């Protein structure tokens, strides 16, 4: 058969097929539909034809039950045996020997946590374990305004800020904090801990890069974990190591798609007590094109002439820091936290920060309290002067005079962290756990003499985690909080009691 015969037979076949198709009822309507709707587009017609065939095949296919059991049936006896053998994983780690010993003697405060606090056993002790630095708890003006707000607005807003939870007092405290810091805008959260742990993942996502100080607190670490970003650590407050890490990250990312890059650090470190070198970090973040998230949870309300934090103390414009995060629950004796920055940064958090979007707004009473205490710090800088005098008086009784401990906190930090001297640890061969037990004995001895202090407990270990997986851990330390609610004489007396308790407990250790 030559080509002409094959072509002729094909034409005859197509002609017969066309004739047979035209005999089908509705074929003319179908052809007109294709020509008018698809403008003789054969590809589109073929796709729709295959979809039609798929629909027909699906309708004609055999039925099947979605209720069929795809597991092995078990008898009641077998089910009971499995339930008895099953042991759920613990939600929290079991108590250690130190925690059990501590809980047996844990003091319970009855009433307000003032400079002189009453315990459940009836004793009144000097309280150097709370963050009531300025004794705002006893300030009658703050109390009266809080009571008035409570009577006007009720206990809570009963809704998230974006859904009927925002009240005029919330907008006022945001404006007050922004004006106090010198930032364009501010956003207020309902809980201090969840502020930084929500701000970080609101901006940094999977694939982004975060360079963080190894000594950042637990809330910051939770934010880093939630963000799922790639985290690079640098040695605590080591600017040379920070520069090395930034250079390495910049070189690694030179030929990769552009990502968001952040430096995360604290203004006043919770676990170490020292302050950040902010001017140097600003210089490095501008040089390597990183954004800076600064956690001022413990420095806002403490450092600087009017308590504006580390930016005021080190003469840095707050607008040079991309995000300033702080707490209203510590020195200000209110509640919640805040993040200050540009208008764009603040507005982005209103729809992207989980702790703001999905949590009830800050109670109006606490918002008013925060506004009032910020105003007191602005108009009464003598409060900070008096606090620093008390800090100096207490340090003078502890650090230079004790043979066993030294203070690692910065000079203006009202939270004194007292760690055992290296020669003490070496001479008595103390492990980390031994130091914790020894410090707890000092806490108990100090309380027995009428002064309440505590230990540094800020890094909960992960369940079943090895020392390598736990990462950086703070040095065991005593935590002593200074307040202006006590006179200089009372502060010095408390310092002597603490020093004598340290000497008594450590000297007994062989």
Beta content: 5-15%
Q: Quick check: average pLDDT?
A: 89
Cα-atom Rg, whole angstroms? 34 Å
Q: Describe the main β-sheet briefly.
A: 7 strands, mixed
Number of helices: 21
**Oligomeric category:** single chain
Shape: elongated
Return the structural class: alpha/beta
Low confidence ranges = none
Helix content estimate = 40-55%
The total count of strands amounts to: 15
Spatial gap, N to C terminus = 112 Å
Strand order of the largest sheet: 4-10-9-8-7-5-6
Brief description of this entry?
With 510 residues, the chain is an alpha/beta fold. The protein is built from 21 helices and 15 strands.
List the helices and strands and how they pair.
Elements: H1 3-23, H2 27-38, H3 42-60, H4 76-85, H5 97-104, E1 109-110, E2 116-119, E3 124-127, H6 140-153, H7 161-165, H8 168-181, E4 185-189, H9 193-203, E5 209-213, H10 218-227, E6 230-234, H11 239-252, E7 261-266, H12 278-288, E8 291-296, H13 310-313, E9 323-327, E10 337-341, H14 343-352, H15 354-357, H16 364-379, H17 382-398, E11 405-407, E12 415-420, H18 422-428, H19 432-448, E13 451-452, E14 454-455, H20 467-470, E15 478-481, H21 488-508
Parallel strand pairs: 3-13, 5-6, 5-7, 7-8, 8-9
Antiparallel strand pairs: 1-2, 2-3, 4-10, 9-10, 11-12, 12-15, 14-15
Helix pairs in contact: 6-16, 8-16, 9-10, 11-12, 17-21, 19-21
Verbal overview:
The chain has 510 residues and is of the alpha/beta class. It has 21 helices and 15 strands. A 7-stranded mixed beta sheet has the order 4-10-9-8-7-5-6, sandwiched between helices. α12 links the parallel β7 and β8. α8 runs parallel beside α16, α11 runs parallel beside α12 and α19 packs across α21. The longest helix has 21 residues. It is elongated. The N and C termini lie far apart (112 Å). The mean pLDDT is 89.
């Amino acid at each position: 058969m030559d080509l002409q015969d094959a072509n002729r037979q094909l034409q005859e076949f197509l002609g017969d097929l066309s004739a047979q198709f035209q005999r089908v009822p509705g074929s003319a309507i179908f052809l007109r539909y294709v020509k008018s709707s698809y403008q003789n587009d054969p590809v589109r017609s073929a796709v729709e034809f295959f979809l039609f065939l798929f629909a027909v095949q699906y309708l004609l296919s055999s039925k099947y039950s979605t209720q069929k059991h795809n597991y092995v049936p078990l008898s009641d006896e077998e089910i009971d045996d499995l339930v008895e053998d099953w042991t759920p994983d613990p939600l929290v780690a079991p108590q250690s020997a130190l925690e059990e010993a501590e809980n047996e003697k844990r003091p319970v405060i009855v009433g307000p946590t003032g400079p002189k606090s009453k315990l459940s056993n009836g004793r009144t002790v000097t309280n150097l374990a709370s963050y009531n630095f300025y004794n705002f708890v006893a300030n009658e003006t703050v109390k009266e305004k809080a009571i008035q707000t409570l009577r006007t607005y009720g206990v809570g807003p009963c809704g998230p800020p974006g859904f009927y939870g925002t009240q005029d007092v919330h907008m006022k405290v945001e404006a007050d904090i922004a004006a106090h810091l010198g930032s364009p805008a501010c956003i207020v959260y309902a809980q201090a801990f969840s502020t930084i742990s929500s701000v970080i993942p609101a901006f940094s996502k999977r694939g982004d890069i975060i360079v963080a100080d190894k000594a950042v607190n637990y809330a910051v670490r939770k934010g880093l974990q939630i963000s799922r970003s790639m985290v690079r650590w640098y040695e605590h407050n080591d600017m040379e190591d920070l520069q090395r890490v930034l250079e390495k990250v910049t070189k690694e990312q030179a030929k990769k798609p552009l990502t968001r890059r952040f430096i995360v650090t604290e203004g006043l470190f919770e676990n170490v007590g020292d302050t950040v070198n902010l001017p140097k970090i600003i210089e490095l973040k501008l040089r390597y094109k990183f954004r800076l998230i600064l956690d001022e949870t413990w420095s806002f309300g403490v450092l600087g002439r009017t308590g504006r934090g580390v930016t005021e103390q080190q003469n840095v414009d707050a607008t040079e820091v991309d995000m300033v995060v702080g707490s209203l629950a510590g020195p200000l004796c209110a509640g919640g936290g805040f993040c200050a920055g540009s208008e764009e940064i603040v507005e982005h958090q209103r729809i992207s920060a989980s702790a703001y979007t999905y949590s009830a707004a800050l109670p109006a009473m606490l918002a008013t309290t925060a506004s009032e205490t910020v105003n007191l710090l602005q108009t009464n800088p003598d409060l900070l002067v008096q606090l620093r005098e008390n800090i100096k008086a207490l340090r003078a009784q502890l650090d230079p005079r004790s043979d066993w401990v030294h203070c690692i906190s910065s000079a203006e930090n009202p939270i004194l962290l007292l760690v055992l001297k290296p020669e003490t640890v070496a001479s008595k061969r103390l492990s980390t756990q031994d130091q914790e037990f020894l410090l707890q004995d000092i806490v108990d001895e100090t309380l027995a003499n009428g002064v309440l202090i505590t230990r540094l407990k800020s890094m909960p270990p992960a369940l079943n985690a090895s020392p390598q997986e736990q990462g950086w851990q703070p040095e065991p330390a005593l935590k002593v909080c200074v307040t202006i609610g006590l006179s200089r004489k009372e502060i010095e007396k408390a310092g002597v009691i603490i020093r004598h308790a340290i000497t008594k407990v450590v000297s007994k250790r062989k």
